[in-house]
């Protein structure tokens, strides 16, 4: 995404961004470990991490990128803030899923067009609850999924 690429080293990214880049240690989540928040000219771009999710040093390769900036888009124009209905037009049927044993993060998968190493999260933190509309009985299960979603659902 942007200058950061899977497989490049942290040192290479630092060299590309130069003095405009800043790199700050960040906790990626309870079950994910440590990464680096990357900013350019004071604007947060993304979080990155190595395969170990145990912080990063310059020679380590980037294996994870979490986009945090609405500027970044897929070739089809999908990125943070894209309404879910527009993402569906680009990638086909969406399935929203949430695991209450995994910090209750809500992810969205599509029937076509994306590689396995690309994940989308919903905008659940901007809504009253999840973006998906789940069956009431599903609340008892740790993992739930649905194809139904609220009108204001979007890529997070």
Brief synopsis:
The protein is mainly beta and 156 residues long.
Q: How many beta strands in the DSSP annotation?
A: 8
User: What is the radius of gyration?
Assistant: 17 Å
Continuous helix count: 2
Q: How much helix, percentage-wise, in residues?
A: 10-25%
Mean pLDDT comes to: 90
Largest beta sheet: strand ordering: 1-2-3-4
CA-to-CA gap between the ends? 15 Å
Q: What's the shape?
A: globular
What amount of the residues lies in strands? 25-35%
Q: How are helices and strands ordered from N to C?
A: HEEEEHEEEE
The main sheet comes to:
4 strands, antiparallel
Strand-helix topology:
Blueprint: H1 10-17, E1 21-29, E2 33-40, E3 43-49, E4 64-67, H2 84-91, E5 94-99, E6 106-110, E7 120-121, E8 143-146
Antiparallel strand pairs: 1-2, 2-3, 3-4, 5-6, 5-8, 6-7
How would you explain this protein's 3D organization?
The chain is built from 2 helices and 8 strands. It has helices at residues 10-17, 84-91, and strands at residues 21-29, 33-40, 43-49, 64-67, 94-99, 106-110, 120-121, 143-146. The strands form 2 sheets. The chain has a 4-stranded antiparallel beta sheet with strand order 1-2-3-4. It is globular.
Label this structure with key terms.
mainly beta, 8 strands, 2 domains, four-stranded antiparallel beta sheet, 156 residues, 10% helix, globular, 2 helices
């Amino acid at each position: 995404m942007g200058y950061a690429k899977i497989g490049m080293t942290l040192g290479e990214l630092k060299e590309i961004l130069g003095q405009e880049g800043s790199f700050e240690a960040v906790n990626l989540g309870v079950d994910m470990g440590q990464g680096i928040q990357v900013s350019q000219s004071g604007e947060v771009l993304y979080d990155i991490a190595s395969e170990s999710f145990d912080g990063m040093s310059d020679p380590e390769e980037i294996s994870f990128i979490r986009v945090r900036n609405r500027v970044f888009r897929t070739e089809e124009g999908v990125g943070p803030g894209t309404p879910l209905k527009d993402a569906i037009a680009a990638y086909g049927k969406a399935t929203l899923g949430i695991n209450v044993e995994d910090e209750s993060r809500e992810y969205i998968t599509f029937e076509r067009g994306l590689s396995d190493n690309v994940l989308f999260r919903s905008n659940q933190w901007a809504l009253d609850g999840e973006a998906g509309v789940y069956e009431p009985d599903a609340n008892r299960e740790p993992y739930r999924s649905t194809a139904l979603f609220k009108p204001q659902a979007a890529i997070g």
